[in-house]
Amino acid sequence: xxxxxxxxxxxxxxxxxxxxxxGPMLAAAALALWVVIAAGAAQADPSFDCKAAxxxxxxxICADSKLGDADKEIADTYKAxxxxxxxxxxxxxxxxxxxxLAQRNQCATAPSPGTCLGPVLDARRTALxxxxxxxxxxxxxxxxxxxxxxxxxxxxxxEIRGGLGKGWSAYLxxxxxxxxxxxxxxxxxxxxxxxxxxxxxxxxxxxxxATDEGFLTALRVVSxxxxxxxxxxxxxxxxxxxxxxxxxxxxxxxxxxxxxxACPDGKALLASAEWKAVDDLxxxxxxxxxxxxxxxxxxxxxxxxxxxxxxxxxPRLFVADAxxxxxxxxxxxxxxxxRWIAPGWxxxxxxxxxxxxxxxxxxxxxxxxxxxxxxxxIAEAVAAQGLNGGVGLITDNLDLQKDTRLPDWLRGTWSWSxxxxxxxxxxxxxxxxxxxxxxxxxxxxxxxxxxxxxxxxASFDPKEIPKDVKLAANAAKQAVSLAPVxxxxxxxxxxxxxxxxxxxxxxxxxxxxxxxK
Length: 517
What we know:
It is flat and about 85 Å long. The protein has helices at residues 4-21, 23-39, 56-62, 65-84, 87-105, 113-144, 150-158, 163-175, 181-193, 198-205, 212-224, 232-238, 240-245, 273-292, 297-313, 325-333, 345-368, 372-397, 475-478, and strands at 412-417, 430-435, 439-442, 445-454, 480-484, 491-495, 501-504, 510-516. The protein has 19 helices and 8 strands. Helix 10 runs antiparallel to helix 11 and helix 14 (273-292) runs parallel beside helix 18. By secondary structure, it is of the alpha+beta class. The chain has an 8-stranded antiparallel beta barrel.
């Protein structure tokens, strides 16, 4: 559930990130390089010890932080590719690397070795980075062939000496035709131990490998290390445990880095036109709630994406864990804040949810050859899970009962001078602001605000009032505290005598004068 455009864009970005950036390892290396360059650091950190540098090429690399970081990235990516490759590809890669090293070393005779090395290192770094997704896809294809040729897959996986080869060899030992659970767990632990990221390694180490869900969750973390998208055949074979392993795991934006299963979503119930009507009703609130929360929202969107794929592959799996649909719809229908809820919204929500369930029921009945009652039960479970994640994010971050719109006396066009506060929107010594029921705009820059408190609940301190201003009658009762919908500082605004307003909560109080309605 959630805005289809936002959700699909996030899924597509995560599905394809490894193809453009070589996975989280390379993304981290690129970030490290950017940080070093931005800081203007002169200290190079190549793949070798600069204290032992002896050749002109090594000395040139050690003298330039950009060259040093490029060398380090090349070495790291080369090692990752070696660990992902079978014997033949590993030999080919080694030959290519030796040929390139010979080319690199020719820069020793150049008038400026450092100038010569730049494009040579960049070309190799680019070539290796482009090879990463191809190597991961090769492993994925091997895994996809496990069901039809487990012996052949086992032989090919045994040639892959890195963590991914060990992890999927462990999978074969666990679920293949000749199971050996003890050996499978031991091999998977070896794969986990090879994860460089300590947080991910600890996450994988903390699950119970004796259970299918725990085993597959650990394998998911091993796969996340190179953003391997599991073939859909694994999801179909392992069912609920595999889908559970794909759900949010880290509770932060780390959940962005886990590739989604490579399952087609063309038949996804939660991506259907019927469900879009539900998404559209919740989209404004979901966007605002997402802006108000931290990286935990990545976990919510991860869950939404996995639910959507699961609704395409096997919607029957929702029946076991889905919340109660009637209660979810009842709770959401009780929202009343006019900031978000227009007249008739609750009825439209009920109709949209029922319309989706009604449309899905015959599709499910035909697909699985089951009765209408059982098919509707499955459809209701899908709808309940589809609502659950987004509704939870909304209710955790928005006040859905009180009226949090900006009051009428605050709306209009205002000007100020003598400001110079450090907070948006009044961050200039002078300017004009347009205020409506939800936003404060200065020029083309608009920031959404909700009323967080009014009257006694407003964070108004009379000590902040400048000596040369006078409060309006009952000003304290009318004072409003405004919370930004996205990140930023809160404001408190009170009416002054003469129709002007005082803005506090900024570095310096600002007086607003009305320019017009």
